[in-house]
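pls design
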């Protein structure tokens, strides 16, 4: 049985929601870069953000990670020493999202197959940014990226 809209809104308002966010990283000839997307839905529409979102009921963290990556058209690998049960950062700040309180598990990831699509269910457009030249990012995700980069010990050149 699905919830009606009123029940859904009440639960969303009162209960933290587990999410996974992917800091997708690549190294080009001169620097490390982060993949950011242009959000096309919700109050942050038009803002830069990372790929990620909710973990569904009965879904493992690995499946949630790959489901969100699949929205990009890619498959990813979590960067060592991290894995689906060992995120680089857990963001429990209650001001990440104006509409709910996510508990975000953050993972550094690299694309292992596929090509990033220009548009997905919740984004339209993407760009690779050098890690030392990130734009303004929605949902407080700049902190999530910063903490992940620190844990990876990636040197900014």
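designed seq:
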């Amino acid at each position: 049985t699905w919830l009606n809209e009123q029940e859904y809104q009440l639960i969303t308002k009162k209960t933290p929601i587990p999410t996974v966010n992917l800091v997708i990283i690549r190294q080009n000839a001169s620097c490390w870069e982060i993949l950011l997307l242009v959000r096309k839905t919700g109050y942050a529409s038009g803002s830069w953000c990372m790929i990620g979102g909710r973990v569904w009921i009965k879904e493992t963290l690995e499946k949630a990670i790959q489901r969100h990556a699949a929205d990009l058209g890619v498959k990813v690998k979590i960067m060592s020493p991290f894995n689906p049960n060992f995120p680089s950062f857990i963001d429990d700040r209650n001001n990440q999202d104006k509409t709910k309180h996510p508990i975000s598990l953050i993972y550094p990831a690299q694309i292992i197959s596929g090509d990033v699509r220009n548009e997905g269910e919740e984004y339209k457009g993407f760009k690779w940014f050098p890690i030392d030249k990130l734009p303004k990012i929605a949902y407080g995700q700049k902190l999530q990226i910063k903490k992940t980069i620190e844990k990876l010990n990636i040197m900014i050149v």
